[in-house]
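[stage:ingest] chain + small molecule (tetrahydrodeoxyuridine)
[stage:ingest] validated
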Amino acid sequence: MKEVKIESILQVFDSYNALPKDVQSLMSHAVKVREKAYAPYSKFKVGAAILLDNDEVITGSNQENASYPSGLCAERTAIYYAGANFPDAKILKIALTASSENKVTDKPIPPCGACRQAIAEYEIKQDHHIEIYFMGATGKVAKSNSLVNLLPFLFDSSVL
Ligand code: THU
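[stage:predict] done
[stage:export] tokens:
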């Protein structure tokens, strides 16, 4: 038996204002679209903004449904739109923000497991790392240089 250690590295910025200007701009798209979320059940709104290598910015918010599992997260709403409309463009950066009517969201809120798996598919497909920035409504912003930090030991097509 041997142990395998898997390391993840994140960078943490003190606030939105500490982000590089281009990322601030992307995050502001995420904040704007977050407020358009359809989240009547959870009251938890998420915004995602994706920067493509053709300079397009794709945004998405979570879309809930009375049949709860039929809803979709903001990240996948945005990334599937990007994949559907710009299949040849590379995803360079993703900015995420979440707010809640029920509690203060002042810590970085990472993407859920299903969204990490979806992002992984595109990072592998395009063979280029994706920078992911995530925050609550306020407070620190975490950055991962690649999806791999958020989903180590991932399931991919190489095993199929
Ligand atoms: N949600 C997202 O949009 N992204 C995530 O990564 C986590 C969760 C949404 C789904 C649901 O509408 C609400 O947040 C509460 O889970």
